[in-house]
């Protein structure tokens, strides 16, 4: 069946949603009374390719030595195939995947294709074409070992600030893009998912984008769509199956000596939940001799001194914080609060040099503006905080040391406003000795 609302009628769709579902323009969690700096205007990216050609192309890591290529076609019978090779225009490999579409109220999506390709060599550029037609793209696989660099940014949206953030990230090379929730800010207006996919395509085709969901991905409508994440799960498939998870809302992956865990703030997380049990098993399987670094991303921050979204991550913190602490997780990144904040290492609301460092990076460029007001006096746990748009970079140099920096957006360039060196907790003999009955191998104890 053809799409009932072709691209030319985007304005009509938007108007109907604004009239009948104005609540969809807002976060599905209460923001509270706090001031925001107005964002720059929204950017709507139109579709300008033939209906059979791929659009909204992006890639993600999909297990060891594999990449998942995802894209959308307006044509319903386009092939779910990816041709690829190491030379431009010369494709010596082909993989076939699957495609499906979804319906949301009056909206009918295009065909969403997912194809897993590989095995691939590390630190290698591959050229690829989706569906047998359209433009050629290329990506570089991450390295097999250190050093590796991550770009980290949350609450991205699609405004002029978003475009600025993406340009600043792209001005310096990196290996993997990490996004802790709130991608398109579609909030039920499905054409905005399409616009977002086209906006990020120039970046997401060249480096893997690893994302987790935020509150703006929920998109429930009572009775009509009572279950959330329909659009997010269909469009942004992550390697949950490869990591033993039963939900696309939480998963993990290994890359170059790091173990990255993407948690779901908006699905069950108590001790009886599937997510909790999965996380417990996932952490138990990490070999810190082979994978010395563990980083966690989630949306609603567990620690926050901004007046925005106070306490919204508290229930999850109480449920899961001890698991991360016992596993000696190195850093926890969050979004949701539209500002930047870096904390010291913490456990149970107290400074603890064996706990994770907590960082909020909900400053990508969203349409809601910045959360300008922080609580006073400043907590001694909070080491740097600023309400500006920007992005972070995590450079893991070797098994023992990494460098974190936050880059504030300026009109023409990004400025390093905060930075810190990190030492992996995997090498801290004192921290491991404080654990009791955690099943730590004697060989690792002796090595430490």
UniProtKB/TrEMBL annotation:
InterPro entries: Calcineurin-like_PHP, Metallo-depent_PP-like, MPP_PAP, PAPs-like, PAPs_C, PAPs_N, Purple_acid_Pase-like_N. Keywords: Glycoprotein, Hydrolase, Signal, Zinc. Its cofactor is Zn(2+); Fe cation. It catalyses: a phosphate monoester + H2O = an alcohol + phosphate. It is an enzyme of class 3 (hydrolase). Residues 1-27 form the signal peptide. Residues 355-418 form the Purple acid phosphatase C-terminal domain. Residues 54-141 form the Purple acid phosphatase N-terminal domain. Gene3D superfamilies: 3.60.21.10, Purple acid phosphatase-like, N-terminal (2.60.40.380). Its EC number is 3.1.3.2. GO terms for molecular function: acid phosphatase activity; metal ion binding. Residues 150-340 form the Calcineurin-like phosphoesterase domain. Belongs to the metallophosphoesterase superfamily. Purple acid phosphatase family. This is Purple acid phosphatase. It comes from Juglans regia.
């Amino acid at each position: 069946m053809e799409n009932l609302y072709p691209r030319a009628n985007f304005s009509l769709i938007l108007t109907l949603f604004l009239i009948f579902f104005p609540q969809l323009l807002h976060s599905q969690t209460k923001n509270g009374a706090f001031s925001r700096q107005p964002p720059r205007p929204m950017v709507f990216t139109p579709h300008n390719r033939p209906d059979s050609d791929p659009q909204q192309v992006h890639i993600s890591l999909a297990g060891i030595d594999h990449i998942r290529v995802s894209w959308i076609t307006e044509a319903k019978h386009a092939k779910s195939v990816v041709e690829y090779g190491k030379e431009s225009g010369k494709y010596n490999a082909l993989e076939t995947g699957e495609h499906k579409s979804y319906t949301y109220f009056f909206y009918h999506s295009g065909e969403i294709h997912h194809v897993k390709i590989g095995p691939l060599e590390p630190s290698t550029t591959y050229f690829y074409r989706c569906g047998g037609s359209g433009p050629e793209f290329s990506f570089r696989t991450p390295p097999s070992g250190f050093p590796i660099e991550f770009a980290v940014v949350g609450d991205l949206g699609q405004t002029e600030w978003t475009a600025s953030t993406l340009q600043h990230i792209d001005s310096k090379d990196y290996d993997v893009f990490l996004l802790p929730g709130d991608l398109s800010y579609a909030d039920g207006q499905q054409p905005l998912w399409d616009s977002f996919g086209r906006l990020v395509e120039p970046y997401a085709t060249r480096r893997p984008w690893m994302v987790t969901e935020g509150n703006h991905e929920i998109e429930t409508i009572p009775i009509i769509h009572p279950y959330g994440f329909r659009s997010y799960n269909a469009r942004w498939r992550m390697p949950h199956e490869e990591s033993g998870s039963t939900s696309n809302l939480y998963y993990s992956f290994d890359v170059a000596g790091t173990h990255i865990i993407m948690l779901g703030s908006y699905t069950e997380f108590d001790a009886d939940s599937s997510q909790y049990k999965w996380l417990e098993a996932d952490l138990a399987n990490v070999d810190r001799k082979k994978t010395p670094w563990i980083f966690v991303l989630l949306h609603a921050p567990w620690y926050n001194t901004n007046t925005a979204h106070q306490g919204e991550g508290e229930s999850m913190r109480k449920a899961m914080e001890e698991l991360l602490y016992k596993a000696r997780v190195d850093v926890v990144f969050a979004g949701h609060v539209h500002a930047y904040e870096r904390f010291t290492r913490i456990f149970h609301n107290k400074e603890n040099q064996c706990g994770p460092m907590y960082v909020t990076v909900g400053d990508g460029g969203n349409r809601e503006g910045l959360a300008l007001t922080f609580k006073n006096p400043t907590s001694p746990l909070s080491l740097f905080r600023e309400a500006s748009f920007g992005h972070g970079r995590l450079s893991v140099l070797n098994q023992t040391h990494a460098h974190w920096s936050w880059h504030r957006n300026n009109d023409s360039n990004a400025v390093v406003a905060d930075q810190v060196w990190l030492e992996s907790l995997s090498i801290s003999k004192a921290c491991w000795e404080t654990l009791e009955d955690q099943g730590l191998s004697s060989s690792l104890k002796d090595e430490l």
